[in-house]
Amino acid sequence: MNDLRSAFLWLNDPLNWTGPSGVFSLAGEHLAMTVVAVLLATLVALPLGVLLGHGAHAPGTTHSGRARRSAGPGAGATTVVIANVSRALPTFALLTIFATTGLGFGNRPTVLAAAIFALPVILANAYAGIVEVDADVRDAARGMGLSGRRVLLGVELPLAMPLIATGLRSATVQVVATIPLAALVGGGGLGRIVVEGFGTQRYGQVIAGGFLVAVLCLLVEGVLAAGQRLVTPPQMRVTAAARREST
Amino acid sequence: MVTSDAPANPWLSWSYVQDNAPEILRYLGQHTSLSAQAVVIALLVAVPLAALAHTWPRLSGLVLGTTGVLYTIPSLALFAVVYPFLRDRRTTVLVGLVLYALLLVVRNTLVGLRGVDPDVRDAARGLGYGRWRLLLTVELPNALPSVITGVRLASVSTVALMTVGVVIGYGGLGQLMFRGFASGYRAQIMTATILCLLLGLAFDLVVSLVGRLVTPWARTKAAR
Questions:
Q1: Confidence (pTM)
Q2: Any chain A CB within 8 A of the CB of B192?
Q3: Looking at domain A3-57+75-243, does it have CATH number 1.10.3720.10?
């Protein structure tokens, strides 16, 4: 209980919030790293997933979660393999490997590692989103004389948007949750408070840091969820249940 | 930075493995036993939880929501908040791992239970099965393949997640990675990483084999 009190005291001390290593600047750094990592992952994964999905044209492909694991050969199988391997590879391993190579200490290896772990989430959702577009709709568009490119841009992409957005959202939250590990290899972000607290055995600070990291994650999740809801037309909103299955 | 007379620092080194076998095995053992415990506990908690949520649909939002929020909280933060209370490294990591594995198993179990063929359910009801008998003898066995998928996912990610336990000094193979990082010794990091991957694979394999054993009827269907 003593630790809880000192955690409260730590959070209540304005000096811990301001300044170059205060909560605000660490949170800013945390978010900046998140943005870079998600952007990097999106740049690679989104076009790849969309093109793989467009090329698959798999008739009668099944629904979300289970589909990705039991999907047919080719493109589907590739995304499955990528997703599974990335699940088995510890982020921390990648972090230490990057930090030990020429990439140096600190934020850069973390951003890279986080981006690599965000990749399969975005890829799998973009792929599933495109593949799951109703085959009849696709055929109708083709029958109306649309070229493959226009089918992709005008029909498949808009219809796949809810799943793509879900993927981006899950990936972002995952990255926010991964960035704290940066502190273990000398990087910044809110994880610093926790790791520093452990180093100095000030468990009040550890609790405060953990609390702040958790709050930031839930905050980002909430904001993104609200934003996604705002920009999705009502008819296209993925229900909560479907979203859970697809992430 | 690298001078010509610096000692070689390869990523893979068999002599490192040979010289440090006892230590590597100790961490591997730690990693294996704790991950296995976490998955088993998560399974024992998650299946009844999902069954409850399935039986009383009003609970399912609460159960999925709570486990979902827990899943959103970063492992580092969770370990950080739990450790000062428990003051035991092993238990803290175990609690964290169980909480993360819970969501995967609960979600898959629920999907499986909901996916049971309505005709099958109706047939059982027609035979006079009560709610609990229906759940235990018809729905749960039917949901088993989905449960097993959840356990496979959970076991693989648990093995990977445990390395984060390094923040409180109980990360199994993560401990080796961290020491390798701290001293810049590549072979140590790489050995631990490969062992971690292999361990995850082994878990996946064991769970799917057990899954095959407990669902003999699934084998008669054509392999998808």
A1: 0.82
A2: yes
A3: yes
